[in-house]
Amino acid sequence: MSFALRYAPHLGFRGFDTPLFAHAAPSRDPVDQIAFAAAEGFAGIQDPWFSSRPEVDKARIAEALTASDLAAGTLGIGGLSDLRRPLWFPGDTSGERALQAACDQAFADAARIGARDLAIVPAGTTALGQDAAEGAFAARLSTLADRAAAAGLTLNVEVVDPAAIPGQLFTSFAQAARVVRRIGHPAVRLIYDTGHLIATDGDLMTPLTRDADIIGPVQIAGQPGRCEPGADPRIRPVLDALASQRFAGLVELEHLWADASAQSERAGIDWLHAIDAELTQAKRTGS
Questions:
Q1: Which residues of the chain fall short of a pLDDT of 50?
Q2: Angle of CA points 274, 279, 284, to nearest 5°
């Protein structure tokens, strides 16, 4: 009962109390969510703020992932609160220590649950101008990339809608792609997030083809409101393209629901099954 693409539902990207299947699964507990995802044929689980969880929950999630044989999705470096402060632009020794601690924790947590991708959101007000900030960010990632590669990890830059979280270093996918290519390290890539791309670039298909060589994790959400993919007709062509490209990574379902209910969640799963035969054919033929 698996899918043509390797979908990975989330355990709460806006908070631990709002996992993707909050109503359809037996409970919102992460272990119940993991068991439900495995039973429904999903390939992985995304828990972006795993590093911020209490140790007791980390241990339970790690054990459940091992038992279910689900792959671990993208982990964020830092926590939710870091999305609004200049974690990647420390201005003093204290800031440097905070960034180092966040990186160390993410690397350790990724090793613990077998995650291969780390997310980086370069946000927060900085005194640097745009060119200087991009240069400083590129230099920092270039240094960290060697450590990531040695650990079997990839650092993935995420472009976030600045209307949702102000103070972003990058305001378009093309802008971030230029810096990633400037870094030129195989362990530095981009997160392709449809929900953010709709807001920042408008065009979903051009980046998917133009920058396929530097795209890492794929995250799916429609708009408005990061709705389910079946509610936004712009998402289906992305899934078709991924299947045609024989994309082998996780397709992280980082969305909410237009109507948060068990019925909507079940309908979302049914929609993925309904399009699966065509995606399987596209994956087989490459077209």
A1: none
A2: 140
